[in-house]
């Protein structure tokens, strides 16, 4: 069999990182990325990019932990290299604070982030409305630079990148041996997945360079995440809301909530509003499927539905998707050598 041709559909953090993992695990493959939108116009560009996992109720915790650990280890190495500033990856320390003590004192990811501990009484004095908190150091991706860095790595590995809207995965069967579906919320339309739904998120990106620590309310709704150039203030979680239009009332509400956690933000300037649709599901769809029309087959690997936690687990799920692509190629090679006998 000639070099297997793999098409990855989607150029958010999931598509780009999956394409990169495929080039690393299958250097003989010819990999192409097809997408109707690229950075800065994807959901991944809107994200804060903090490595704090969101829990997928339908996925075993040990699997989620493994995805997070692989992602953390990968990005930690980048943060500790000369590539860090170009890739937009940096360490950030801060606090997750709770009005009432949480049921589980230790989240499953507490031994993956660095220096996780319960906050002292003295630290909690900064948050008079909160009773309990965790302090730790984690990683943050500045999303647009990280997406551009991934694209650059792909081009260096010989990957072709084209702008194309795919109306039906089957349309790719003449040109490619394996197709990988990383279309995020686009999978609602592309593959008619009824288990996938949008959770709208509105955030503000502000200039407040004096804010150095992250602060996250334990309810997950209000957060302050300092990046290299801008601070992300959030947020909202609106299930089944497809609107990408910023809402001025929500902007005011987010700003007020964040200022109540960190009063110095009243001095923030140059407020930009962004909206994105989290591609949400009970569990990430990470599986093989073989499309078949009239006896002609097209293996597909799905990797979408990362909801509120795509950055936190992207490398782990990309590695697993690349492994499934390897299985599809091995099966194709097995059937082509049997056909020659
Ligand atoms: P996308 O980035 O949407 O990429 C999908 C790609 O597929 C796009 O390029 C699109 O153009 C393409 N596509 C779709 N349909 C087609 C088609 N038919 N043909 C061709 N191309 C197609 N996660 C974290 O881990 N940490 C955070 O701090 C964080 N903060 C967030 C804050 C907000 C406000 C939001 C909205 C999300 C946040 N997330 C965070 C979640 C994270 O953004 C998502 O999980 C992640 O971006 C999903 O990536 P994706 O590549 O699957 O989707």
- What is the N-to-C order of secondary-structure elements (H for helix, E for strand)? EHEHHHEEHEHEEHEEEEEHEEEH
Bin the helical content: 25-40%
Strand content: 25-35%
Query: What's the CATH first level?
Result: Alpha Beta
What overall geometry do the principal axes of the alpha carbons give? elongated
Euclidean distance between termini CA atoms: 14 Å
Write up what this structure looks like:
The protein has helices spanning 13-25, 43-46, 61-79, 84-87, 121-124, 143-156, 187-190, 248-261, 310-340, and strands at residues 5-9, 30-35, 89-98, 114-118, 132-141, 160-163, 178-181, 197-207, 214-217, 223-226, 231-234, 238-239, 269-280, 285-293, 296-304. With 341 residues, the protein is α/β, with parallel strands linked by helices. The protein has a single domain (5-335), classed as 3-Layer(aba) Sandwich (Rossmann fold). Strands 3, 4, 5, 8, 9, 10, 11, 12 and 13 form a 9-stranded mixed beta sheet that branches. A hairpin with a 5-residue loop joins strand 9 (214-217) and strand 10 (223-226). The longest helix has 31 residues, at 310-340. The chain is elongated, with a radius of gyration of 21 Å. It binds flavin-adenine dinucleotide. Residues 9-15, 34-37, 42-44, 46-50, 165-166, 182-186, 190, 201, 203, 235, 276, 278-279, 304, 306-312 line the site of flavin-adenine dinucleotide. D-dopa binds at residues 223, 278. It catalyses: D-aspartate + O2 + H2O = oxaloacetate + H2O2 + NH4(+); D-glutamate + O2 + H2O = 2-oxoglutarate + H2O2 + NH4(+). Belongs to the DAMOX/DASOX family.
């Amino acid at each position: 069999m000639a070099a297997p041709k793999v098409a990855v559909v989607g150029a958010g953090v999931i598509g780009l990182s999956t394409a990169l993992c495929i080039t690393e695990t299958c250097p003989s493959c010819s990999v192409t990325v097809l997408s109707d939108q690229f950075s800065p116009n994807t959901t991944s560009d809107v994200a804060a990019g903090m490595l704090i996992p969101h829990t997928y109720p339908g996925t075993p915790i040990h699997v989620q932990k493994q995805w997070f650990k692989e992602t953390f280890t990968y990005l930690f190495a980048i943060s500790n290299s000369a590539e860090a500033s170009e890739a937009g990856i940096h360490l950030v320390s801060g606090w997750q604070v709770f009005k009432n003590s949480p049921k589980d004192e230790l989240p499953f990811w507490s031994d993956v982030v660095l220096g996780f501990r319960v906050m002292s009484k003295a630290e909690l004095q900064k948050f008079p409305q909160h009773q309990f908190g965790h302090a730790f150091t984690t990683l943050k991706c500045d999303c647009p630079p990280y997406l551009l860095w991934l694209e650059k790595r792909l081009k260096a590995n010989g990957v072709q990148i084209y702008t194309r809207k795919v109306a039906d995965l089957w349309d790719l069967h003449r040109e490619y041996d394996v197709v990988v579906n990383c279309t995020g919320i686009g999978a609602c339309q592309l593959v008619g997945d009824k288990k996938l739904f949008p959770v709208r998120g509105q955030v503000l990106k502000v200039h407040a360079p004096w804010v150095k620590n992250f602060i996250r309310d334990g309810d997950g709704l209000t957060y302050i995440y300092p990046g290299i150039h801008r601070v992300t203030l959030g947020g909202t979680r609106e299930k089944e809301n497809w609107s990408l239009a910023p809402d001025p009332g929500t902007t005011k509400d987010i700003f007020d909530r964040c200022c109540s956690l960190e009063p110095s933000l009243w001095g923030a300037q140059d407020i930009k509003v962004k909206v994105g649709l989290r591609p949400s599901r009970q569990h990430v769809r990470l599986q093989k499927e073989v499309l078949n029309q009239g006896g002609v087959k097209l293996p597909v690997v799905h990797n979408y539905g990362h909801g509120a936690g795509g950055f936190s687990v992207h490398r782990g799920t990309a590695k697993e998707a690349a492994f499934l692509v390897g299985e599809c190629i091995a099966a194709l090679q097995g059937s082509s050598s049997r056909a020659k006998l």
